[in-house]
Amino acid sequence: MLRTLDLVLVGAMIAAATVTYQIKHAAEEKLAQVRELQAEIKLQEETIDLLEADWSLLNQPSRLQRLSTAFEAELGLRPIAPEQMAEPDELPGRASDFEPQVADGATDAELTTGSVQR
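Above: the chain's sequence. Below: its structure in token form.
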């Protein structure tokens, strides 16, 4: 009996060691994946920073002024005159110009929404 119990316990220890090794191996693989993803994220963040710096250089007013002056004749560019600006009264579609739309045959008392409880 003692010998059978010893064999069962040795088998259980071997099984536990195998499961522990498999879990450790899977955790190491996941850790490697996490580190790989972190490296990719860092590369993307650095690329975004570089592109933002490039964008700010390309949008410098002095550079844009120089380009607009250089290509003024080809593109037909002209400075904006103060008369070209629209007054607020000239803009179409003020909110007060529109009337609310109600479903056919419905009154305000019959209309309900999911967010308003009556």
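The helical segments are 2-58, 61-70, 72-75.
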